[in-house]
Amino acid sequence: MASCLVGGLIAKDYPRALIRTSDPGEATRKKMRERHQILAINDNHALVEGADIVVLAVKPQILESVAKGIAPSLKTNCAVISIAAGVPVRALQRWLGEQTAIIRAMPNTPSLVLAGATGLFANPQVTTNQRKSVDQLFKAVGVVSWLSSETQIDAVTAVSGSAPAYFFLIFEIMQRIAQELGLSEDAAYDLVLQTARGATKMAATAEVDCAELRRQVTSAGGTTERALQIFDNGGLEDLFRCAMNGAVDRAQEMADDFAK
Q1: What angle do CA 141, 147, 150 make, to 5 degrees?
Q2: Are 190 and 174 within 8 A, CB to CB?
Q3: What would you report as the CA-atom Rg of the chain, rounded to the nearest whole angstrom?
Q4: Do 17 and 78 reside in the same domain of the chain?
Q5: CA–CA separation, 225 vs 66, rounded Å?
Q6: Are residues 34 and 103 in the same domain?
Q7: What confidence category does residue 260 fall into, taking pLDDT thresholds of 50, 70 and 90?
Q8: Which of 5, 39, 109, 163 ranks highest by number of CB atoms within 10 Å?
Q9: Per-residue b/e over 219-258, b at no fewer than 16 CB within 10 Å?
Q10: 182 and 112 in one domain?
Q11: Are residues 192 and 101 part of one domain?
Q12: Do 119 and 245 share a structural domain?
C-alpha cells in the first residue's frame, strides 16, 4: 500500500524529492528506489524528522513498536496516518502522544491501480490544512470518504476494505460455472470480467440507482428474472448481510484487543 500511495502521488506530479520511505528490508528499499526514484532508507527516526505527514503502512501486530519508536522524533505539528485495520485512535494516541494529530485510513487494494476507495477518520487535533493534505494524498489513488465517527471505519472495512475479495469470489464462481456450461476458460474469464467492467461503468454513469438498472435488465418471464428469483429464494441478501456484519464484528474484536 505504501508503494501504491507513492505511485499515485508521483502520477499526480507530486515532487519525488518530498517523498521518502523507510523499510528494514533491502529488497523492498531497492524496489522503491528503482520503481519510484525516491529516497528509501532503513531509519525510521531520520524518515520522520521534519515530516509534515507520516504514513504508518505496517502490520497491526508491529504498529505499537513502530509508533513508540518514532514518537520522540515527530515534530509538533506532524499528522500521522495509520492504515492498520483494527487499531483505534486511543491506542495510537497512547503510543504517539495524546496531542498528536492522527488519521485512521481504510484504503482498499484497487488503490494499486489508482481505482481505490478510502474511508478516513480524523481526531480533533487534525487541522483543516492537514485534512486537505491527507485528502490530496488518498485522492491520488482513488476516491475518498471522510467519516464523522471512528466506529464507521468498521463499516468501511466491510463495505470497501474487504469487498474486493467478495467480488473476486463472485468472479471465480461465475467463471467456474461458465466453464461447466461449456465455455472455454478464456471465454469464461473474458465475458465475466468485461461484464463486471460494463456493469460498474453503467452504475457509475447512470442517472438512476442500481435497483432501477436491475429492473431495466429484467424482462418479465425471461432468463434474468428466473436467475434473480433463485438468488432471492436462496437468501442472497441475508447471506451478504451476515458476511458483512461478520467483517464488522471481527474489526471490532481487533479494536478491543488493541485497546487493552
Answers
A1: 115
A2: no
A3: 22
A4: yes
A5: 54
A6: yes
A7: low
A8: 5
A9: eeeeeeeeeeeeeeeeeeeeeeeeebeebbebbeebbeeb
A10: no
A11: no
A12: no
Same domain membership, residue 75 and residue 35: yes
Domain count, the chain: 2
Q: What integer best gives the mean pLDDT of the chain?
A: 94
Task: Confirm if 105 and 138 have CB atoms less than 8 A apart.
Answer: yes
The span from the CA of 54 to the CA of 21, in Å, is: 10
Amino acid sitting at position 67: A
Backbone phi, then psi, for 44, in 5-degree steps? -65, -35
Decide if 260 is inside a domain: no
Domain membership of residue 142 (yes or no) is yes
| Residue span of the structural domain in which 190 resides | 163-255
Whether residue 116 is predicted with pLDDT greater than 90 in this model: the reply is yes
Residue 23 sits in the same domain as residue 137: yes
135 and 168 share a domain?
A: no
**Stretch 11-19: mean pLDDT:** 90
* 101-106 vs 79-82, strand pairing mode: parallel
pLDDT of residue 258: 75
Q: What is the DSSP string of 119-134?
A: EEEE-TT--HHHHHHH
**CB 80 within 8 Å of CB 96:** yes
Q: What cell was used for 227?
A: 436467475
